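Bench log. Compound arrived from synthesis this morning; before running ITC I wanted a structural hypothesis for how glutamine sits in the protein. Inputs:
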Amino acid sequence: MTVAVLAVQGAFIEHEKMLQNLGVETIELRQKEDLKQPFDGLVLPGGESTVQGKLLKELGMFDSLKEKIEEGMPVLATCAGLILLAEQINNDDKRYFQTLPVTVKRNAYGRQLGSFHFEGAMQGSLQELGTYPMEFIRAPYIAEVTPEVEVLAQVDQKIVAVRYQNQLAMAFHPELSGDDRIHQSFIKMMDN
Ligand code: GLN
């Protein structure tokens, strides 16, 4: 099983390490050529969504990745990655893949709460994980979801993790938590 990690900017190495520790092979997507290798899943890491979105288009990777997501390839998206997937962004004019029917708000917690840690309860199909250590770094939250979207976690009544079909997306950084259970759930999605 091989996971491709978008590696144009942001916190991609931490995802690679976590997946490798779980016995999964990873490849890095840095340029169009890299898309020629076969892979079974995709990670869109945290970082800066505007930079990642621009690079994806400039490097010619945007259309093929959008197609793969639409065709059902399992995706794990964190923070900026969630913004790349979102259908709507309520405080930015830019749009990217638009494969996830949610509305996000970027940098939603303001300056004072730029970064914070929260031990939050997972719910829905990830309820069995119980409490999970959530690291938020200039994070978005999910302001709206359509009924088909499954809510997987909320903090202060704001949605911070969802699943929709093949897309697992969260506002926090599971790759920085030292707790690999969300990555394990993603691996299960690839198995099915
Ligand atoms: N603030 C970033 C953005 O809007 C996301 C932050 C992150 O990925 N940690 O893209």
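What the model suggests: Residues 46-49, 79-80, 83, 106-107, 137-139 surround glutamine (CB under 6 Å). Helices lie at 12-21, 49-58, 62-70, 80-85, 181-191.
ITC booked for Thursday regardless.
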